[in-house]
Amino acid sequence: MHTTILSALITATLLGPLAGHAQTTIAPVQQTEEQRVLATEDEYVAAEVSRDEATLRRLVDDRFVYNSSKGTTSGKEELIKNVLEMAMTRQTLTERSVLMEGDVALIFGTTELRFAVPGKEDAISTLRYTSTWVKRQGEWRMLALQMQQRARD
Questions:
Q1: How far is Cα 98 from Cα 131, in angstroms, rounded to an integer?
Q2: Can you give the pTM of this predicted structure?
Q3: Longest distance between any two alpha carbons in the chain, whole Å
């Protein structure tokens, strides 16, 4: 009798936490708007590297403006045309921060772009950028982009 009670206590002690755990439901992870806009920017970068025109068209707003470090501006169609012609092999984003104001997000970061050069090593360009995103009909769209050479440390 004493052994049966002891066995029951040991079993309850060992399996009790597991039984309670089995009844616990895990709540889905909620993304913040900052996480959503960063994920959308990641999707845009992947579309650039893979030259995915459909995704680029979906993510770049029709009112998009690119402000180059040379002082020129261009729109959505020119951006997509240029991306599709690039020989980009990789892009790495770092040092990102997000500034949110309602349905507008500014992302500040650094990007390292790698381009294939026939017969040579990849060309590498390291830039600082500011991308402006607007939330339209529940989806983030890139509205503007400014890029410039990153200052050397």
A1: 10
A2: 0.77
A3: 89
